Amino acid sequence: MIEGDPAGTFTVPSLLDAAGTRVRIRTARNLTEAERLLTDDVHCILLDLALPGPAGEDGDELATLRHVLRLAPRHAVLALTAEADAERAAEAVRVGAQDYLFRDELDGRQLSRAIRYAVERKRADTAQHKLAESRLRAQENARLERGLLPTPLLEGSNLRFASRYRPGRSRALLGGDFYDTVRTSDGTVHAMIGDVCGHGPDEAALGVELRIAWRALTFAGLCGDELLSTLQQVLEHERESEEIFATLCTVDIAPDGRRAGLCLAGHPSPLIARHGRAAQLLPYEDGGPALGLVPRARWPRRQVELGGSWSLMMYTDGLIEGRVGPPGSKQRLGQDGMVAMINRQLAAGLGGEDLLEAAVTEARDLNGGELTDDVALLLLDRG
Predict the structure, then answer these.
(1) Residues 261 and 115 placed together within one structural domain of the fold
(2) Are residues 321 and 220 in the same domain?
(3) How do beta strands 76-81 and 99-102 pair?
(4) Matching PANTHER family, A to Z (predicted)?
């Protein structure tokens, strides 16, 4: 209770809480005393609006209330005033008080009910405010993550592009997997897919840094071992721990679309489906280690023939590490299982986004529930 009656003529009636326990009341005669008494076990403040305001704020009739609200933002506040000041009492509620009471009509039962109501309303207002802040942060994060997802730069290319991305983090749009596709001025199409170990927000941020670095280095003319060596330097500089590494697969497709260079850094090899033939994995021998594992490592670039009409699917291991078989089985889909699955879907006439969506859906169904790791798929079609 904060009231400035020097004669002490205003008294608070005896109060009981809902359980019948007597409510403890502390009394302060000014704002200085009130500040010392506002500990965490105080639930409600009864403020006499007739109390003089802080020095220098004499023109504001509610200066005292505003000061208390700043002083105790987590406490419920009840404004006490004379019946003749009903307009000021209503303004006090608009400013931030939970309710107002007239001194002349005050009794223990009415005050107990008003205090309980004020406390519950304050709790509800606080919870609503936190919920609104949480929703706003979620919307801002979603906009940020959407902005960080790549936009392929393939203008002038006859290749068709499709992608599917599903982060392992609950309610996230971005995980530790990353991919990108660009076409350089000489007509070469460069595609990349990678996976930072782990799938939290730090890994997602590192994945974005590596993707942006890859795009910049690719446009600068780097390719193969030189590009991956530079990316490893970026990873080593940006990672929070020396235990963090990233796998990567890069493909550079010649302007005529018939051949490509392939580099693997601890990453599974892409899958290719040529016209009239079953899908199979591209050669995966002679790959190099994941980025960040071996200092001054080397990553050989292997030349592969693609043919005239083909579909090339790049993916992260979140797709192939899902389990298959009866509940409790430890058997995983693996690359062979994935190749068989893709061939069934190709035989059913699926392609593009539909093929990628079907691949993720079937892998999830075989797993008996959501896949726990991030999953990224990238598909390039020619012919």
Answers:
(1) no
(2) yes
(3) parallel
(4) STAGE II SPORULATION PROTEIN E, STAGE II SPORULATION PROTEIN E-RELATED
